[in-house]
Write a structure and sequence with these properties.
Elements lengths: L1 H27 L3 E6 L6 H12 L9 E6 L6 H9 L7 E4 L2 H4 L17 E5 L4 E7 L7 H6 L2 E4 L6 H13 L3 E4 L4 H10 L5 E6 H5 L3 H5 L3 E8 L18 H11 L7 E4 L5 H14 L3 H9 L7 E2 H12 L3 H12 L9 E10 L3 E5 L5 E5 L6 E4 L2 E2 L10 E6 L5 E6 L1
Parallel strand pairs: 1-2, 1-3, 6-7, 6-8, 15-18
Antiparallel strand pairs: 4-10, 4-11, 5-8, 5-9, 12-13, 12-17, 13-14, 15-16, 17-18
Helix pairs in contact: 2-12, 6-10, 6-14, 10-14
Length: 415
């Protein structure tokens, strides 16, 4: 009798499971699944997302179409807000935000409408290592240079790690980094480096250095001088951000700030997605991470694959959110340090028509001249890609500069 009940239960369960599979099949068949990423095209996140989207249809019941939608803005807070507030919650919308955006509200960014544990995490493609990297010939060669002299590092917005890492270093360790905001993606940051406008950036994950920016990395044009989050064994001799800590308190603060990058290639469903579709997406993710065709594609694109399951990312998020209040408060203070500096800068380009003791006059192509103030403390000067000073500026030089609302030049770049 017991065996018969077990047999009946087994048949019933199999029928239920088959019915669930058919229901998923019926739901996804003919649908379009959208993977929204908070970065512009051409960077590391975009490369990962498009490779994943290429293989996802084979592992979803009903083989739906999968498309990638770039939604940059506020270091991907815009994309995360969209997924949380506006996007469909039926399992047809996935989001890959920057890790800094995931924890933005926790660290005081009120523009973020969500908390990280409200998303339903599907998995993470790569346990990332973040870097602050310098451009060849910029005069920036090691972490010590960040302490010994003022340097220019580029960032998209104050809400991203490219801005947060250097500002936290300034707050905790007295580095002399001037963060210049307003660049649209890491591709434009590289162009600014090549033009001698800035010296480096903390925007480059190791995975991006090995893929989207592989040529610059392998040629030695782009060199890491500091690493964060997962310690990369290949970056021997490059100090880790936790190595800088002078006591356990600083170490906990920097761990809270930098460990976010570990989940930097994570994919989530919005809150409210049905539990069975969350499970379906997680199964698909886990299968893709072992799929020979996917792994071959990642290898060809030089994309490291070191995945976390959805459950592991959930655990990381909970650990981060359970940090002691004093540690969170100190981390927030470090991330707020200098947050309004060099955000709304105006641009000017032309030839030097006059150099004063504390000012420079630039005449543009239309013949319009403008005088902008300069200061040894506030103005960073780059001449032919190397750091310079006002004494090195000469009439006739072609320059571009960015200046603040008080007419003070923050960055002057001349050839």
């Amino acid at each position: 009798m017991a065996l018969r009940r077990a047999w009946i239960f087994g048949v019933a369960f199999a029928a239920f499971a088959a019915g669930g599979a058919r229901a998923e099949d019926d739901f996804y068949r003919g649908k379009v699944v959208t993977l929204v990423i908070g970065d512009p095209p051409g960077g590391g996140a975009d490369t990962y997302a498009r490779l994943y989207a290429q293989h996802l249809p084979r592992f979803l019941p009903g083989a739906p179409s999968v498309v990638v939608q770039n939604m940059p803005g506020a270091s991907s807070v815009v994309a995360a807000n969209y997924a949380y507030k506006t996007a469909p919650k039926d399992g047809t919308l996935l989001v890959m935000p920057q890790a800094a955006a995931v924890f933005a509200r926790m660290f005081g960014n009120q523009a973020a409408a969500y908390q990280p544990d409200e998303f339903q995490w599907v998995g993470n493609l790569d346990q990332a290592t973040g870097t602050c990297s310098a451009w060849k010939g910029s005069g920036l060669k090691s972490f010590e240079d960040l302490i010994n002299k003022p340097v220019l590092l580029a960032a998209v917005a104050p809400s991203g790690v490219a801005s947060e890492y250097p500002r936290a270093l300034n707050a905790l360790y007295g580095t002399r980094i001037k963060v210049i905001h307003g660049y649209v993606g890491t591709g434009n940051i590289v162009i600014a480096m090549q033009n001698g406008e800035i010296q480096g950036s903390c925007a480059f994950m190791v995975s991006a250095l090995k893929s989207a920016f592989r040529t610059h990395f392998e040629n030695g044009d782009l060199t890491p001088i500091l690493q964060a989050a997962r310690r990369d064994p290949e970056l021997k001799g490059v100090p880790h951000i936790l190595d800088l800590a002078r006591d356990d308190g600083e170490r906990e603060v920097m761990r809270l700030i930098s460990d976010r990058d570990i989940m930097a290639r994570s994919i989530a469903l919005p809150p409210g997605a049905p539990a069975d579709r969350v499970a379906t997406m997680r199964r698909a993710f886990d299968a893709i991470m072992k799929d020979p065709a996917f792994l071959e594609g990642a290898a060809k694109a030089n994309l490291p694959i070191l995945p976390n399951t959805g459950a592991e990312i959930e655990a990381l998020v909970k650990r981060m959110m359970a940090a002691p209040a004093p540690v969170v408060a100190r981390a927030r203070a470090a991330l707020e340090f200098g947050i309004t500096e060099n955000v709304d800068l105006k641009s000017l380009a032309g030839a030097i028509s006059k150099v004063g003791r504390d000012s420079i006059e630039l005449t543009d192509a239309d013949g319009t001249a403008r005088t902008v103030k300069m200061s040894g403390a506030a103005t960073a000067i780059m001449v032919a890609g190397a750091q310079g000073n006002i004494e090195g500026l000469k009439t006739g030089m072609t320059c571009s500069l960015r200046y603040s609302a008080d007419n003070m030049a923050q960055v002057v770049t001349c050839k």
